[in-house]
Predict the 3D structure of the following.
Amino acid sequence: MNVELPVVCVAVIYHSRKGDVFERMLDSLAAMDYPKDRIILLFIDNYSRDGAFDLCANWVRAYENQYRGVIHIRARGFVSRLRNIAMRIANEAGLDFLTFVESDVVVDRTFISRLVSAYFEQGTVKNVVSVSAVRDEGVENLDWLERRYVRWLRGRGERHHGLMEGEAFNSGNCLMDLNKSLEVGWFDEDVRFIEDLDWGRRATRKGYVCLFDSRVVIPHLKKYSLKDMRSYFMAGALSEAKLFLKNGLGLQAARRVLYWSGLFTSLLLSWVNPLPALAFFLVGYVVYFRRAKGFGKVLLFPVSMPFNIVKSIGLGAAMIYWLLKGGYGQEKVTMLGEPDWEVVLWEVPASLSRS
């Protein structure tokens, strides 16, 4: 790379120690090979209660002199709002690049170096707005149903090699061009769980390119369970419904809702006439049979059916909510006024080079 390494703001949003996971993330952060005098660290504590704040503060005291600058704040809100706060702080600090690092990952030693290199290599021929690392969820960390998908669906769990373009980006482990990002807009604070899918689709619709670099694989240590579905119904459904409606995917979502709702209704009425239920079931079974492999050809559709019905009912209700309420085409942004976050530490040079 024949350009001076840019100053990068590395933003870490956290709300829990997660056992020893947060500590492992901090250790991996310190081990990255990107020059520390080209890094501004930004820690955002979502008012954690299990000692994560003290752990981070102690780590900062041990390492702050090695970095170009360190900011540590406490703020409230869902992750999309906290990402907006990070974007605002980095932009007002005069930086061109922002990187998000999840608090429950172990970052690769070359994480920033490779993403910066990929950005400048491809940025001369493509209008690149972000470069994301590939996140390895680890099969052992997935919930029971997701493990079935990985095992039984064709192409699920397979990894591409090298650089590739995506329809969105991985907001938890990425490099963003701040100037272009602000042209795309802020994260939508109504979209609480899949804010990167919404933002990335908006970026690609504006003609920007979201790259993924499979040379950088980030182990994600979060453990999932089927209980997580409770957070989807209804908050997650409202997020997904707004994303679909805002990005022109409403008809695609409606087809899903109509199919699973139709199947559910026909099953309830099968004692009157079993033929509609049989027809719905056979259509779904054939589709899943063609997409699956191994035992999944036989088991994937009936195993996943109850979960898909529940999610589709939630999604359908959420889509009706947004259609009646209106405003789904606009982003909700609440952090542009007077800062409402608590500053714990602000050690940043008064004037930063935008190189």
User: Anything to note?
Assistant: The first strand starts at residue 8 and ends at 14. Residues 230-325 form one domain.
